[in-house]
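Handoff note, outgoing to incoming analyst
You'll be picking up this chain. Sequence as last confirmed:
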Amino acid sequence: MNKSQIAFIGAGNMANSLIRGLLAKAVPASQLFATDIDQEKLQLLQHECGIRTGTSAEIAANADVIILAVKPQVMAAACESLRAGIKKPDCLIISIAAGIPVSSMESWLGHDRAIVRCMPNTPALVGEGATGLFANTRCSAGDIALAGEILSAVGITCWLRTERDIDTVTALSGSGPAYFFLMMEALEKAAVALGLDADVARQLSIQTALGAGKLAADSDVAPDELRRRVTSPGGTTEQALLSFQRDGFERIVANAVEAAQKRAAELAK
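Most recent structure output, in case you need it:
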C-alpha cells in the first residue's frame, strides 16, 4: 500500500472515514484521490486531508486501486463511465456499495478486472468497523492483501468463502449496529420506567454496551463463557436471563437475522 495510488469514486461518509483512516495509518495524502458530484464534500476533504480531487476520468487514469463508494442505484452508470478511463490493466477495484454482485460489476467494467466486494458497517466511521470481503477469481494474492490492508484502516476485516456469505454478513454486522442501538434504547426505557433519571439511564446503557463489547473483544474466551462468568446462581443476572429465555430471546434474534439476510439476497438480485 506504500506506493499505491488509491482513487475514491464517491466521497460520502464511508469514503471519508476510509480516507482519514488511511491517513492515520501513514498513507501519504499525495497517494489519495477522490471525486464526487458534491463539490463541497471534495473541497472539505481537500482542505482537511490534503488529498487531490478531480473528475472520474482524471483520478482513474493513474490509479492502482479504485474504491467504488457510490450509492447502489448509480453504480452501473459510475462503472460504465470509468471503464474507458482505467489505464492500468492490473488496477484493483474495491466496491463498498451494498447489494451489487461481482457479476454486475464485471459486466460493467470488464471480466478481466480484479474485483473485491466489501460489506463494511457504520462503526467504521469511528475506526471500529467490521468488514466482510469477497474476491473474484481475477484477484491475486497481492490484490487480496492490499484490499485487506485498506479496509483494515477502519476496523477488522474477514474474508468470505463465497459471495453469498455477504448476505449473511449484511444481516450480522452490516445491519447489526441497529440491533445493539435498539437494545440500548430498550434498556434505557426500562430503567426510566423504574424511576431512573433519563440522562443517567442513557449514559449507563451506552457505556454498558461499550464495556461489554470491549471485554468480549479483549477476552480469550467466547461470549457464552463471559455470560456464565457474570451470572451468579440465584442472582439478578440469572433472573434477567431466565426472563429473556422464557420470551424466546434467541429465536427473536435468529428470526431478525434471517429476515435481514433474506432481504439482502433479494436486493442483490
